[in-house]
Specification:
Blueprint lengths: L17 E3 L2 E3 L4 H12 L10 H4 L10 H17 L3 H5 L2 E10 L6 E5 L1 H15 L2 E16 L2 E11 L3 E13 L5 E15 L19 H10 L7 E4 L3 H11 L5 E4 L7 H4 L31 H14 L4 E2 L3 E7 L6 E6 L6 E6 L1 E4 L22 E4 L13 E5 L3 H12 L3 E5 L5 E4 H9 L10 H9 L3 H18 L1 H10 L12 H8 L3 E4 L2 H6 L4 E3 L4 E4 L3 E4 L4 E3 L2 E4 L6 H9 L31 E3 L4 H20 L10
Parallel strand pairs: 3-8, 9-10, 9-15, 10-11, 15-26, 16-25, 17-18, 17-25, 18-21, 19-20
Antiparallel strand pairs: 1-2, 3-4, 5-6, 6-7, 7-8, 12-13, 13-14, 22-23, 23-24
Length: 649
């Protein structure tokens, strides 16, 4: 994938219908069709946006003192929290409020929505959480108007809890009172663990204060070789997710070892197709402790990112064994410790480690391609490869190429072939969500991640304060705004016959990434090539079989091909873990990716059903934020600061 989360032979005539997910509407206009899909998804009992109309508010006075309102609310909130007054806290929230807790009160990732769910949560966890020392961050308080019919006061605050130092975000919405005035109640609250008591990160004032005269190199080599101590944590995989959790652990004074099977860090980015480039902007992709420099390009080429990851491991002094493989994994049933046998180097010696925690950092499917199977593939006289094996379109000059798939990798690979003058056809199996990076990204990321954005850690907290079910409602509106901005391009795609998808209930990119890690393309130019007919399009019939010279479809049509590239994604991450753990773990290992009923990612960065086993994954931004959460859970277990009591669904 190009987002680091990382998808007779003429173009068909224009389709006569607009495809919206699994729903088709008459060919009126894209925006009307999308509006119909979104409005049709609303139903009683589901959360809704706190519009002024819903709240019964006609207008917001121009002279309100937002800092006074936020201060008053937090004082009341603090008083109720410190006295474990659950009913008092509930009186400060709207009836359909969201409360998202990241480790502070639950030692889990939980979303509670509406009064009944929040009341049960508070009754169970408020007193034992020991919340105190609330402090408002005055500089963050502001009245926001994301749309003309929505207004809220957003504020960030800090506090202490039994677990450690924490941060919070609240958004207050206006509620009319009987005397015609307004009171302000919380529609969304985030409580987020930042630091364990007594165990600050070794950064800033906590870093090593003494000089090292001539001893660093030898000391560093002994650390890498684990001569004087063994790792507490073993991390399988040296991509961005493995590096970021290793960095977080290192600066919590937890020794860890990354085992990477490839010869160099960044291998998966360095060896992919030449056209691969991140479609997320640089200010969204910063890594912990070492942000990208201000000279960095907005969209990072894959080779450049590979080199950056290698330098990241070097500069942060992470312990990595490359060209190394895991030959055996076993967990002690009583101690829950892991015995892991590692072969260092291609023909090197084996070493056995006994570690407290094991972290899989294998990404989506551990890099194992998902390969579709069709009858006749063994008869095909051309070449069939997965996008993971594709290197350059120069290898296919003078040939006919068919790319199966219509998401990010498929678009990138097709565009690359056009650039080299190769006859290429995209076979689209399902509708695809399209938005441009130029117009869509500023609307999608807003002011949180941009050239003039707030500090990244502040932006991450604010972003996390929108639970996915609430974010979905907002993205339905954002998707319409993006479609309006991209209307000319989307109209052109529709006329070219491309099947446009809109995500779950018209929420666009968000839930496609969280549920499927695919189904979208963030356009950087390939869409226009489809409109212009330079990338040919085939999507009028499913594949029936391969022939000796191409592909035959169920409607009787055929597509000649010399090369077929399957841009069909990768295995489920759970499958990747089971390849190493063995089938005996299948009954215990929970889903890792995808959305839970509450709206959280199922298992990444949190409990996945097997003690002391974790899965670290996600794009660069998600790894940046949640690597701290995973590291805090591991550190707390190692130090006895947490007994494993989770408040889980």
């Amino acid at each position: 994938m190009a987002t680091a989360i990382s998808s007779a032979t003429s173009a068909l005539p224009a389709m006569d219908k607009l495809h919206l997910r699994d729903t088709e509407v008459a060919p009126q206009s894209i925006l009307k069709g999308l509006e119909r899909l979104v409005s049709g998804s609303a139903s009683s009992g589901k959360p809704t946006l706190p519009t002024l109309e819903k709240l019964g508010v006609r207008e917001i006075p121009s002279d309100i003192d937002v800092k006074a309102i936020a201060t008053s609310w937090l004082l009341s909130f603090a008083k109720c929290a410190q006295t474990a007054d659950a009913d008092g806290l509930l009186s400060l929230l709207t009836e359909d409020a969201f409360w998202r807790d990241l480790l502070v009160m639950t030692w889990d990732f939980r979303i509670f929505q509406s009064t009944p769910a929040i009341r049960s949560f508070l009754n169970d966890r408020l007193a034992r959480s020991k919340l105190s020392s609330f402090k408002l961050n005055d500089a963050t308080v502001e009245l926001q108007r994301p749309w003309h019919d929505i207004a809220w006061i957003q504020a960030l605050f800090s506090f202490e809890a039994d677990a450690g130092r924490a941060s919070g975000v609240v958004r207050l919405v206006p509620i009319p009172t009987s005397d015609g005035k307004l009171t302000w109640k919380a529609h969304a609250v985030l409580t987020n663990l930042e630091e364990l008591k007594g165990f600050p990160e070794k950064t800033g004032p906590h870093r090593e204060p003494l000089p090292n005269h001539g001893k660093w190199l030898e000391k560093r080599q002994r650390e890498i070789d684990f001569v004087d101590e063994e790792p507490k944590v073993l991390i399988i995989g040296g991509g961005q997710s493995g590096l970021e959790i290793a960095a977080r652990l290192k600066y919590l004074n937890v020794p860890s070892l990354i085992v990477e099977r490839h010869p160099r860090i960044g291998h998966n980015w360095r060896t992919r197709y030449e056209a691969l480039c991140l479609h997320d902007p640089v200010w969204y992709d910063h890594m912990p402790y070492l942000p990208f420099p201000p000279t960095w390009p907005v969209y990072t080429p894959a080779m450049k990112l590979a080199d950056w990851l290698e330098s990241y491991a070097h500069h942060l002094e992470l312990n990595v064994w490359t060209s190394s493989t895991i030959t055996k994994i076993n967990q002690d049933d009583k101690t829950k410790k892991w015995t892991v046998v590692v072969q260092r180097g291609e023909n090197g010696p084996e070493r056995t480690f006994t570690v407290e925690h094991l972290v899989f950092a294998l990404g989506f499917g551990g890099g194992e391609p998902r390969r579709p199977k069709y009858p006749g593939m063994d008869e095909f006289e051309g070449k069939i490869i997965h996008s993971a094996q594709h290197k350059t379109a120069r290898d296919h000059v003078g040939k006919k190429v068919v790319v199966i798939g219509a998401c990010t990798s498929a678009h990138d690979i097709c565009a690359e072939h056009v650039e080299h003058g190769v006859d290429v056809t995209m076979f689209q199996r399902n509708p695809t969500y399209i938005m441009t990076t130029k117009r869509g990204m500023p609307l999608l990321l807003g002011s949180l991640y941009s050239e003039t954005a707030p500090p990244t850690d502040t932006a991450d907290r604010i972003n996390a304060s929108f639970p996915n079910p609430l974010m979905k409602l907002m993205h339905q509106r954002v998707t319409r705004d993006i479609a309006e901005a991209d209307k000319e391009l989307l109209d052109g795609l529709q006329k070219a016959g491309f099947k446009l998808g809109w995500g779950e209930d018209g929420s666009g990119f968000l839930y496609l990434a969280w549920k499927r890690a695919g189904g979208y393309y963030l356009d950087v130019g390939a869409s226009q090539l489809i409109i212009d007919g330079k990338i040919k399009l085939k999507n009028d019939s499913p594949i029936e079989r391969f022939t000796k010279t191409g592909i035959k479809f169920e409607n009787g049509s055929e597509l000649p091909a010399d090369v077929v590239i399957t841009a069909t994604g990768y295995d489920d991450p759970r499958t990747a873990a089971l390849r190493l753990l063995g089938d005996k773990a299948a009954d215990k290992l929970r889903p890792i990716w995808g959305i839970s009923e509450e709206g959280e990612i199922n298992g990444a960065w949190r409990d996945i059903g097997i003690p002391n086993l974790w899965y670290m994954m996600g794009n660069l931004a998600m790894c940046r934020f949640h690597s701290k959460h995973l590291a805090l859970q591991i550190k707390a277990r190692l130090e006895g600061a947490w007994n494993g009591d989770r408040y889980s669904a």
